[in-house]
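thread: overnight batch results

M.L. [08:02]
morning all. the overnight job finished for the chain we discussed friday. pasting input first so we're all looking at the same thing
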Amino acid sequence: MTRSRSIFLLADAALVLLATFLLAGCGSGGGSARADAATPKRVNGQPATIGVANNRRLGKILVDSRGRTLYLFKHPASRGACIGACAKAWPPLRSSGKPVVRGGAKASLVGTIARSDGRPQATYNGHPLYRFVKDTKSGDTKGEGLTAFGGTWFAVSPAGNLVKPKPKVQPPPPPPPPPNPIPQNNGGDHDGDNNGGPSDGDGNV
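M.L. [08:03]
and the structure it wrote out:
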């Protein structure tokens, strides 16, 4: 009796340990699943800021958070994206999430696209936005109208269209000199040059 009872007690203890182990494992797995669900996916960077500036040369154009001109790339469809050396000269405007607008920029026109490296780039009216490395301060538009990397670069209007330089207004031509009146009372030879009479040397009589 004593031996049989000992066997039963050992069996009961083993079952208790097994049940405790299984419960602990289930609890640990459930906790990890809830933690993963509660932790949002980390996103690097910040949303880009797109504003509007009044440029003396171009009028109202899009600018970044530092007032630097933003450009679109007009090129044939076969040209493809601006990558490699192109992206070094024309850095894409990066944006983590939908860009923020200020000034006269329109929130309905902003968005992002994924570049070949998987990182998002800001767009405006469907146009990917770029800066130009030679624009070193706000107000610079050194990239305007440049043809490079298989296309032409233009600043962007608040309406989302390319901007071309305003035509220079040519000053009106000077008025013609007043006519030289024919002197009266024998004041010349009546040929209209007002240089004197028949001896004025113009060959007229």
